[in-house]
Design a protein that fits this description.
Elements (H helix, E strand, L loop, with lengths): L1 H22 L3 H17 L7 H21 L3 H23 L9 H24 L8 H20 L7 H23 L6 H37 L6 H28 L6 H26 L7 H23 L9 H31 L3 H28 L6 H28 L4
Helix pairs in contact: 1-2, 2-3, 4-5, 4-9, 5-6, 5-7, 6-7, 7-14, 8-9, 8-11, 8-14, 10-11, 10-12, 11-12, 11-13, 12-13, 13-14
């Protein structure tokens, strides 16, 4: 069995090397091509196929995917995008039809809690329908995911929430993250347990976020321009916009982003790793400057809850930057400049996170536990362990005691911890803290 695996790996590397020389592919494009081939090979592990046949079919599929990017549009996902965008926009109207419009007092929290359920179940169905038969998830997986959505929907809407309670907001923030990770299982199909598959989903998420921002900005410009030109002739469209164009526009932007990100992901060029390499040194300079200023002033800003939230978001961005640069490097490449930048960036982030944790523990000791404080403590601990493991494995790779595949496995397996924590905050915290 080891010889078969070795032969397939050698064939893939030889093919990528030839394509690199023929088409002048850069490192990121070569690595994307290599990983696309390995994912297809993983999907094709059938007893009736030899290793050579599996490799040839995988090459053919990847070539067809990249050719489709240039030549033709597959109308099935396009029709699904239009259908699901319409359905999601319609789902957003249901509370309004039941007398709980977003402009009604107290309805804002209802929309905020249920925002995930307007869109994400349809996103899961979309990925399930466009998945190839060989990569499609099992029936048990579909049933489990459907049960997850139903259970969380019932819980989030039957909990006896207290007005302006901390746990309601925490659930509304963490639930979309949990359900997006659940959606990722259908996006990956049978490869959701593999490190390569999970890294592909991380790259997809980063690409979707970047492309989604552009789509939303374009949509906002279009809507504002339309409002302006119609107001010039004394036609007020604000009610129509808030009632119809905004919900359907948000839904359309979401599904168009999924569609175009999927098409880009099937090609060999992605933008997330490139931008990560550009911004990593800039974030490093910003964090070093902040650390020096904090040391000189002898003042910690972590006593402010709003700053602590912003800092946690920044830590997630740092983690994303190093993960996307990792996704674009060759596993067998020597330790280089970008790896050094990532290591120092993580080291500085760890120091600052340590200071933040000390302040959080002080607040817990002085003022007692609350849902927000415990959530902040847990999230900073999770980020600390994640970044610490990343730094440790990077150091070992620099010492040539391990390779960068260990980093990939660490980061992708840690997604399970993140999913469990978001589930705890979204569903267990409200009960533990009496919905306050």
């Amino acid at each position: 069995m080891e010889n078969v695996i070795y032969d397939q790996e050698t064939a893939v590397l030889d093919y990528v090397a030839k394509q690199r020389a023929t088409h002048r592919l850069n490192d990121a494009a070569s690595l994307a091509l290599e990983r696309a081939l390995f994912l297809e090979i993983e999907h094709l592990q059938l007893p009736e196929l030899t290793s050579e046949e599996i490799f040839m079919i995988a090459v053919r599929r990847v070539e067809m995917q990249n050719r489709d990017m240039v030549k033709a549009v597959n109308w099935k996902p396009v029709l699904l995008v239009l259908t699901f965008a319409f359905l999601a926009g319609t789902f957003m109207q249901i509370p309004s039809w039941l007398g709980s419009g977003i402009d009604q007092p107290g309805s804002g929290s209802l929309y905020l809690r249920n925002l995930s359920f307007f869109i994400l179940p349809l996103a899961a169905l979309y990925f399930g329908l466009i998945q190839s038969k060989s990569a499609r998830s099992s029936r048990t997986t579909y049933i489990t995911i459907a049960a997850t959505f139903v259970t969380t929907f019932l819980a989030i809407n039957l909990f006896p929430w207290i007005a302006n309670g901390q746990t309601e907001m925490l659930s509304a923030i963490h639930l979309p993250i949990l359900l997006w990770l659940v959606v990722g299982i259908l996006y990956l199909g049978k490869s959701w347990r593999s490190s390569e598959g999970r890294m592909a989903f991380i790259r997809f998420t980063g690409e979707a976020l970047m492309l989604g921002v552009l789509v939303v900005l374009g949509l906002m410009v279009l809507l504002l321009f339309t409002l302006m030109i119609f107001s010039a002739i004394s036609i007020d469209l604000e009610n129509i916009f808030s009632s119809y164009l905004v919900p359907y526009g948000i839904s359309a932007a979401f599904f168009v982003t999924l569609y175009w990100t999927g098409r880009r992901s099937s090609s060999v060029e992605t933008i997330a790793p490139v931008l990560a390499k550009v911004f990593s040194p800039l974030f490093l300079l910003s964090l070093v400057g902040f650390l020096l200023a904090m040391a000189v002033q002898g003042k910690s800003p972590f006593v402010e809850r709003e700053f602590l939230i912003g800092f946690d978001v920044m830590l997630v961005i740092v983690l994303g930057l190093v993960t996307y640069t990792l996704s674009s490097r060759r596993i067998d490449a020597p330790f280089g400049y970008q790896d050094s930048i990532n290591f120092v960036l993580i080291a500085v982030a760890l120091i600052i996170d340590g200071v933040a944790l000390v302040e959080i523990v002080k607040r817990l000791t002085e003022y007692g536990a609350s849902a927000n404080k415990v959530a902040a403590l847990g999230e900073n601990l999770i980020l600390l362990v994640d970044l610490g493991g990343y730094a440790y494995l990077t150091l070992r790779a620099w010492q040539k005691k391990t390779d960068f595949m260990a980093l990939v496995k660490w980061q992708t397996r840690y997604m399970t911890i993140v999913a469990l924590w978001t589930a705890v905050v979204a569903l267990i915290f409200p009960i533990f803290f009496s919905f306050n």
